[in-house]
Design a protein that fits this description.
The chain is an all-beta fold. The chain has one domain (about 1-90). The chain is about 0% helix and about 55% strand. It has strands at about 1-5, 5-10, 10-15, 15-20, 20-25, 30, 35, 40-45, 50-55, 60, 65, 70-80, 80-85, 90, 95. The strands form four sheets. It has a four-stranded parallel sheet with strand order 1-6-10-14, with no helix packed on it. A four-stranded parallel sheet has the order 2-7-11-15, with no helix packed on it. Strands 3, 4, 8 and 12 form a four-stranded parallel sheet that branches. It is globular and about 30 Å long. About 45% of the residues are buried.
Length: about 100
């Protein structure tokens, strides 16, 4: 999976692995040059760009950013990614928000 030059302003609600661009990045997949300004809500692994980056399968987010709201009811929330397993990569990416709950 390759997602490039994408933008989302959507409000996304789910259970686990919830993100505004994609819920899960792995299998050699890459999200690049993408950003979101929407709101993302879930129970766990909730991220502004992706809910989860699977490192064991070489998931990567690069040159991307998030400027919306993230909220997780249980655990694992982040501005770019909600959770990153060993080997997952986030490069040249950032979140403009500091109030992630």
């Amino acid at each position: 999976m390759i997602i490039e030059n994408s933008y989302s302003a959507a409000t996304v609600t789910g259970e686990f692995n919830v993100g505004s661009v994609t819920g899960w990045v792995g299998g050699g997949g890459t999200i690049g040059n993408s950003y979101s300004t929407g709101a993302v809500t879930g129970n766990g692994s909730v991220g502004g760009v992706a809910g989860k980056i699977e490192g064991s399968t070489n998931g990567t987010i690069e040159n991307s950013h998030f400027a919306g709201e993230v909220s997780s009811d249980l655990s694992q929330a982040g501005g770019v990614a909600g959770s990153i397993t060993q080997g997952g990569v986030v490069r040249n990416s950032y979140s403009k928000r500091q109030d992630i709950v």
